[in-house]
């Protein structure tokens, strides 16, 4: 058994863990990093990166089939599904060196390719190593949730951890779960020539503003995705190539392949949290505002901390705890400025309070301003006019923004900046956007806030009239 002492032990080499390890090591800390699976974690290998790569292939296929509006003949795309997966693998391989063991060892991090488990409040065992660290960061992420549906254990199925390895194009893909992962994969596969049925127990994209979600749902239905809402999967039967799902209301759906996209569960099973005096929760690990666990020498970040499950949240939280761990300074994580996006076409993005949340919190003080894509000249030129933005404003200060439409995931960046820095609508209106850009959508939303104050205000008109009479 090898005993190791260090300043900082990081368990998990996903987005959050890598950010902590790199930052701490480069600022002089002695860092050990444990990873028993793939460097780069879920995002690089099974999540954000491969899903966006597959969506990119699907977008090209869709463009070929819908080119006539631009004066180009429509073509039936000749989809090579295996080659599309080669594209996905190439994208992963291109990015992987940034997350590689060799790169982090170059930063001075000691990388041990083993899972870790606590054996005391101050020690973690990883293979033949026992590590005693001044501080520990748990960044073990999450895994696909596999529900106990009767019959599921007897049929083949995929999750996000296996779907990108599939080489043969599904004839008919059944997807259980209508959240972001399910909807992104539904659109990718229908555009690549598959039949797709999404079965959702409640409402598709149920965590998003219903008005925005309906735009995305309608678009997917127009493309041929069958979306069945309010349908709980009660039993599953069949075999490879012939899978049948019966819902609780007696309906039956048949397909060739099954993808589970129901949700995520925190990766805590291997950690032996009890040995360290760390309290779990239903969704992960209990942490305070500074992301400390009930063991004050141990922090938890990312999916395993039980909050918002996004790669960029883990990266943000890594920055928060670095301040506390390395410099002993107080630091607290916040969520009011954290955006998220669903990368369907059109995209859906949000930051801050939704309209419903803002109405509940602020009541009559709330103003909701809107701007539609079909008034944006660049959107018209590119025939991307489906969608709109709405900004929730209280006393001139935005408290939330929701966007559905072309490049919504890019546009939401500005509103995250606004909320993070407590800017006002006047500061957004003062921004100058190049013409013609999709980015003008943001500025025009700010303009929509001020327009009635300037153009529908009798006092403004009287003042202008007086000034005009007195000007030489």
TrEMBL record:
The keyword tRNA-binding does not apply. Its cofactor is FAD. Keywords: Disulfide bond, FAD, Flavoprotein, NADP, Oxidoreductase, Redox-active center. InterPro entries: FAD/NAD-bd_sf, FAD/NAD-binding_dom, FAD/NAD-linked_Rdtase_dimer_sf, Pyr_nuc-diS_OxRdtase, Pyr_nucl-diS_OxRdtase_dimer, Pyr_OxRdtase_I_AS. Pfam families: Pyr_redox_2, Pyr_redox_dim. Residues 7-318 form the FAD/NAD(P)-binding domain. The keyword Cytoplasm does not apply. Residues 338-445 form the Pyridine nucleotide-disulphide oxidoreductase dimerisation domain. Belongs to the class-I pyridine nucleotide-disulfide oxidoreductase family. This is FAD-dependent oxidoreductase.
